[in-house]
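Workshop exercise sheet. Pairs work together: one partner reads the sequence aloud, the other fills in the structure field after running the prediction. Swap roles for the next sheet.
Pair: D.N. / O.F.
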Amino acid sequence: MRGEDLELSFGTEVIYDRANFLIHEEDKVGIVGVNGAGKTTLFKVILGMQELDRGKIVIPNKKRIGYLPQEIILDNKETTVFDYLMSARPIQELEEKLTTLYEKVAIASEKEQSKILKAIARTQEKLEYYDYYQAENILFELIDHMNIDSELLDMRIMDLSGGQKSKIAFAHLLYSNPEILLLDEPTNHLDVSTRTFITNYLKKYHGMVLVISHDVTFLDEITNQTLYLDKVTKTMKMYTGNYTMYLRKVKQEKEAKERLIDKQEKEEQKLRDIVLLYSNSSGKRKRMAQSREKQLQKIMKNHIERDKVYKRVKLNIKPSREGSKIPLKVNNIDFAYPNKDLILKNLSFLINNKERFLIVGENGVGKSTLLKLLVGELQPTEGHIWFGNKTDIAYYAQEQETLDLDKTILENIDQSGFSDKELRTILGSFLFHGDDVFKKVGVLSPGEKARIALCKVMLERGNLLLLDEPTNHLDPETQTIIGQNFKNYEGSIILVSHNPSFVESIGIDRMLVLPSGKITNYNKELLDYYYHLNQKESL
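Structure field:
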């Protein structure tokens, strides 16, 4: 695949300006760049969902492309999971088409037979591509490797949790057997055992993989090339190696450039000093000043500029008051969704003031459900949830359900006690400037929605934070910024996260393991054990 002189603008905003790239058939490529550099847009161009102003992307042999978007939206909500997975390979339709073609060829004229026989050959070729004799076995093997429970197969798509939807969408994509994979934040919501399988699968995948991810470890494990989209120059540059190697090479380039700029600045200053000293002289000294001025002009014509430094998110979450000594007690709660088995059973625990409390468990065991019970969106079927009289909750939802997509950014964060000017200043610290604040939230990217949700949490000034996958959709630099802020936060935190480095950064005190309900003190070995082996049953 190659991109030739790509040019694209949205209004006055230039995305690509004569950008080029070349990707070989079995390359595994990490797509990197700051927010707004055009990473997801590149996928849409490849898929034909976005037209270029100029240039083209060439994909030889019309290869089949599979796409996993950042925001998972599954159609056919009434369809069962198993039927949805089966639909990834249109084998039944192709077999029915083949039967019809054989029936036609038997009664066709000699002139028509040639055309029908070619259609039969094409249909047979497609069936062979989908390995139709072994397809069902391949699907069940995939289901097994991705730890998709048999009970889940009979569930409707509409009844799945966010993590389950991600897993099912990924399984559907892999089973569809594309020759090119486009993956946009593929590890969001995935439990570690599934993530491990996906990582190993992609390493051995005989095809091209392009992946946008803020999961540095994942990029390092699977990629052999890194395509950098430069928001300043609107161009693209390919680096050989994974994300860590890319960072090392970029650092070396910056250091070399900085040395060159320092040398250039010293030379410029030296020439300026001579020009200033002798410009009003006569004779040989005046000629020297004129010569040096010409040299200075020549250097300034080819002057090397320092790279533009982009603004970073500024987060400073502070509780409005000291919390209760015991902010929260959960006493023997049960919970089941209508007509479903219990998802939480006889669960009890308490939170201490300023504690960092991590909830772990596979997708579908009730982590997000528990947070929704704590925030009052759901009610336990048995038991009781008690809050201290000085407990103030601020909640970050995994899929940003706390945001109103039909309202503007400014309307979504509107809080009593803040003027519009103050709110706009605060939004500026979350990288929303000028007329950006009047955009409807529904048109924003997942990363932008995540920043607004964090802004809401900050403005609520709670002393008990309920955080459900707060690093999803955020770049590594922003993850580091919010991790440091949560570490220094003067309140209590209950966290659900599949991001080990982020968990480490905020300093966890204890862990709740679901569905067993066991409480254990935190330690790094236990975190590594759980995240890499995913064996909560033995804890």
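Discussion prompt: Residues 399 and 466 are 14 Å apart (CA to CA). What would you look at next?
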